[in-house]
Amino acid sequence: MPATVHNEEPAENNRGDRIFFAAFMTGIAAISFGLGAFIVLAEVPPYQSMKNAFRAGTALWEQRTKYTDVERLDFWAPARTEKTGVTIHDANKTQQGLTLYSSGDGPHAVLIDMDGNVVHEWRMPFSEIHDETSPIPNPQKDGFMHWHTAKMAPDGDLIVQYTAAGDTPYGYGMAKIDRNSKPVWKYLGTAHHDFSIAPDGRVYALTQEFRFNKYANRKQLTPPRLDDFAVILSPEGKEIKRVSILDAMINSSYANMVDFAPYFSNEDVLHTNTIQLITEETAANFAHGKAGDVVLSFRDLGIIAVLDMDVEKIVWATRGPWLGQHDPDVLPNGDILLFDNQGQLADPDAGQSRVLQIDPKTNAITWQYKGTIEHKFDSNIRADQQRLANGNTLITESTGGRLLEVTPDGEIVWEYLNPVRRDDPDNSGKKLIPILSQSERISDDRAALFTDTGFTPPSNDGEPR
């Protein structure tokens, strides 16, 4: 019988091969790590592609994991009280009229009388106007959006802006809708936060987009960034002018103010949250801008600025005793009224927010409203205010889901709490209230358009009662 030949290698050779292979793979991993570290630290190609891919993956993961329950969105906050509707009403001291507000529980707006009765309501989900022209190819579900801003046009139609949670850009666009919640026009540019309606029907709005440009003297503004633009829409909703706000700032004498952006905002350096048109009336006593310019608010920089839309340049900017501000309004006397979200630091039990009226020549505070222990006033983001014809101020305390009208002496003469409530999924037995992002007391001529009878307001889920 022929001898059997064995080809097996000695055990020590196998162990040696495995050790060699492990060392080889460890070396490859070390080289890859070192190369990756060099690419990141030196910011050489393909650094930007790696950075973009990582950020995109992180954003997608957060969207899929953090934004699954509507009640966990920041459109909702813990309810401070069980009270709903109108809780204070001194008819002898209020500016009588109808009040329009938008709510965080969906894309809708409500018009109420002084007793809190619903006079009219508008609802139109974004899915009804979205099409292939939108830069948002896969928008969030309708339940994850609300109208951040809803304002009534002179003809009684409503102009609204859609904001989504868990997406960037989060501004989805605008629409004008009639009293039956049917679209008159739509603008699917990435409009966000705020807009202003001119007397001639044009609309001044904010849009946002990712940009990849660099600035020679501002290396900290690394791409991609979410940059803001000021746009002008025709009365029919067509874009007729568009200005880069960051370019307008960098190309102005106020460019150095950008260098004081906090560390967390370089990828959204301005975070413009307000645009207000300066009219002939408000320009008369305002030394820092002319009719046709717009007032802007840069939240994280704490800046109020004026943009000349003709020369596309910031022509005035200031910082003052406010933090995270919203809604600077130029008053007819030339002062600026604004919501100071986080600047009330002296008495935390009264809330961190206040409304300030300032003299822009000196930044001196000429009037203010702040909360008390009995009437806490606290909205860390969003919120706005409106100076009324009788001298009172209508205030939207967004996080509290509350509207209030105060006299020049600071007396609350009208208060309204969002009547919508939902269970807090993270705190058994507790309730959540949807934010009220903005409000306005509408003029008598527009209010007259809604004094008809026969309107049946929808319930909270949009179905007729």
UniProtKB/TrEMBL annotation:
Superkingdom of this protein's organism: Bacteria
Membrane-traversing stretches: 20-42
Keywords assigned by UniProt, alphabetized: Membrane, Transmembrane, Transmembrane helix
Signal peptide start-end: none
UniProt entry tagged with the keyword DNA-binding: no
Region Disordered, annotated ranges: 444-465
One Pfam family from the record: Arylsulfotran_2
SUPFAM superfamilies, per database record: Calcium-dependent phosphotriesterase (SSF63829)
Protein name per UniProt: Uncharacterized protein
Protein species of origin: Thalassospira alkalitolerans
